[in-house]
Amino acid sequence: MENRTSGLQAAPVDTTSTTITIKGILSLLLQNVDENDGRRLISLGMGDPTAFSCFHTTHVSQEAVVDALQSDKFNGYAPTVGLPQTRRAIAEYLSRDLPYKLTSDDVFVTSGCTQAIDVALAMLARPGANILLPKPCFPIYELCSAFRHLEIRHFDLLQENAWEVDLDAVEALADHNTVAMVIINPGNPCGNVYSYQHLEKIAETAKKLRIPVIADEVYGHLAFGDKPFVPMGVFGSTVPVLTLGSLSKRWIVPGWRLGWFVTTDPCGMFRIPKVIERIKKYFDILGGPATFIQAAVPRILQQTEEAFFKKTLYLLKQSSDICCDRINEIPCLTCPSKPEGSMAVMVKLDLSLLEDINDDIEFCFKLVKEESVIFLPGTAVGLTSWIRVTFAADPSSIEEALRRTKSFYQRHARKL
């Protein structure tokens, strides 16, 4: 493994795409914190809004979990595919935004969206198969693909077009061994939101190539720009869609590990008995979410008030605006596209303006060492000379983190 930290006291970083995880790199960055720095550590590296007091879940969510636990009815095993009432509630929740109705048979309950990703890739993998992943991308897809022996082929997200999919590249990459393409909307790590028209083009392209779409919608409905969130399942009659999601982001409960794998496929490609049986058998070897958390889901989905969602969107919009404004005051950093959704944004790093920093990994390791501020190196999501900044934080923390980053730049700026 190559040491990319230029003598800093940190473990070597393996930048092979199939070994990188966000938690792994953040763990290495944490090891590099100067324990003698009296300032508090500010981490804008992971999308966990619970770390900041301005973000918290609803009272109804907490009450639903407590009531389910205290009822003494949900201490045993749940069916491996999920409690019937949980599956039914998720089907009804997702159907609100679709031109057709899902049933509980379309829904499988998972331990967060990460497990849903693994299920999707496991179901599609076969010898010699390849999968089309966006670049940049949430790195778990590459890790899971490697474990499933799926060849990874990357298509670019076009930064100059608000991170839209390069559909020409998708067509050029696909062949008879391609099993799916992955779409993340709202986007992680880019903070983009796809329009109805662009999603329609994605569906038409996938139909032409005769491949299904894996739609990662873990940030579903967290759209605060001009474009509303449109689920990929809207185009399920055009192309089969596997929809992945969770409570984690919209309800601000990532630690509850409640996700879903859903066949949004009204034409029935994934309803073939052999396919359904294979999915069910795979779930027999998985451990799902805690039964009492599953039992709370119907009430959470049905009784959460719209005011809670609006407040979350307001906070994210406010924080994202502050984040981009402060980033653009630092000469070596540029925020080319203002985020329109999710909880993170990709920031361009101009290394030519820095004297003793060679890449985005070294930038992040030196920054945490000198300023106790954590960003995620772009290498972790497939883009070198970029960083990913999470803005799901309180405005004062964002202001302070970027004030320290500006001081860091001034100290390392190339002398003219």
TrEMBL record:
<keyword id="KW-0032">Aminotransferase</keyword>
<dbReference type="InterPro" id="IPR015424">
    <property type="entry name" value="PyrdxlP-dep_Trfase"/>
</dbReference>
<dbReference type="InterPro" id="IPR004839">
    <property type="entry name" value="Aminotransferase_I/II_large"/>
</dbReference>
<dbReference type="GO" id="GO:0004838">
    <property type="term" value="F:L-tyrosine-2-oxoglutarate transaminase activity"/>
</dbReference>
<feature type="domain" description="Aminotransferase class I/classII large">
    <location>
        <begin position="41"/>
        <end position="404"/>
    </location>
</feature>
<dbReference type="Pfam" id="PF00155">
    <property type="entry name" value="Aminotran_1_2"/>
</dbReference>
<dbReference type="GO" id="GO:0006572">
    <property type="term" value="P:L-tyrosine catabolic process"/>
</dbReference>
<dbReference type="InterPro" id="IPR005958">
    <property type="entry name" value="TyrNic_aminoTrfase"/>
</dbReference>
<keyword id="KW-0663">Pyridoxal phosphate</keyword>
<keyword id="KW-0808">Transferase</keyword>
<dbReference type="InterPro" id="IPR015422">
    <property type="entry name" value="PyrdxlP-dep_Trfase_small"/>
</dbReference>
<dbReference type="GO" id="GO:0030170">
    <property type="term" value="F:pyridoxal phosphate binding"/>
</dbReference>
<protein>
    <recommendedName>
        <fullName>Aminotransferase class I/classII large domain-containing protein</fullName>
    </recommendedName>
</protein>
<comment type="similarity">
    <text>Belongs to the class-I pyridoxal-phosphate-dependent aminotransferase family.</text>
</comment>
<dbReference type="InterPro" id="IPR015421">
    <property type="entry name" value="PyrdxlP-dep_Trfase_major"/>
</dbReference>
<feature type="modified residue" description="N6-(pyridoxal phosphate)lysine">
    <location>
        <position position="249"/>
    </location>
</feature>
